[in-house]
């Protein structure tokens, strides 16, 4: 296994304008569009960290804290905060900037988990993470607790999947 890598080695930024096709009926950025941006940038951070093929295993949540309007730009920042054996936690911070006033606000946050896959499509080990900044250190230290919650949630999801019917109304 390769040596651990710095959070900064997986850091990505993406800034976009909000176009008329990106908004919902409130004239603010459509949540599904933002979720696609989040998954996209997070997958690049995960791939930069491990230099393997990666898949999204889960998204904890996306907390939409502030609406993003057509007069704002939206900037996403992502980096790997922590790794297990084959899994990587990626944090995504979404900022909006009012392009007329320059005021910047955190608009959303999200944690996602990606798994590195080898050529046989089975999970493979990934390098550890070295946090440096105050933000990186806090996110790294608090990650094991979030990982435990995901293990429990996954067990619950599996139980629910076993219970659910796969019959269609027309069967
Ligand atoms: C994610 C996936 C590769 C895990 O494969 P698996 O054979 O179940 O592997 P394991 O149970 O050994 O888990 C591998 C790692 O993934 C983690 N993991 C699996 N499911 C997870 C979930 N829902 N949330 C967080 N972590 C998860 C495990 O904790 C483990 O972490 P570790 O290696 O750091 O300890 C598999 O479930 C899968 O392919 N899912 C579909 C992914 C996909 O298609 N994503 C695109 C979205 S549509």
Automatic annotation (TrEMBL):
It comes from the Bacteria. GO terms for molecular function: fatty acyl-CoA hydrolase activity. Keywords: Hydrolase. The keyword Hydrolase applies. It is an enzyme of class 3 (hydrolase). Residues 8-120 form the HotDog ACOT-type domain. The keyword Cytoplasm does not apply. Its EC number is 3.1.2.20. Belongs to the acyl coenzyme A hydrolase family. This is Acyl-CoA thioesterase. It comes from Paenibacillus thermoaerophilus.
């Amino acid at each position: 296994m390769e040596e651990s890598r710095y959070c900064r080695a997986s850091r990505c930024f993406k800034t976009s304008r909000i176009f008329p096709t990106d908004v919902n009926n409130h004239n603010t950025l459509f949540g599904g569009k933002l979720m696609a941006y989040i998954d996209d940038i997070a997958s690049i951070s995960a791939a930069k960290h491990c230099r393997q093929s990666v898949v999204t295993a889960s998204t904890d949540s996306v907390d939409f804290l502030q609406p993003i309007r057509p007069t704002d730009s939206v900037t996403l920042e992502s980096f790997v905060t922590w790794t297990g054996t084959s899994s990587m936690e990626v944090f995504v911070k979404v900022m909006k900037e009012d392009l007329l006033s320059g005021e910047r606000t955190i608009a959303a946050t999200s944690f996602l988990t990606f798994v590195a896959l080898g050529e046989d499509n089975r999970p493979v080990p990934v390098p550890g993470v070295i946090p440096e900044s105050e933000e990186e250190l806090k996110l790294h230290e608090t990650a094991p607790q979030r990982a435990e919650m995901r293990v429990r949630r996954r067990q619950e999801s599996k139980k629910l999947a076993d219970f659910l019917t796969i019959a269609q109304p027309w069967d």
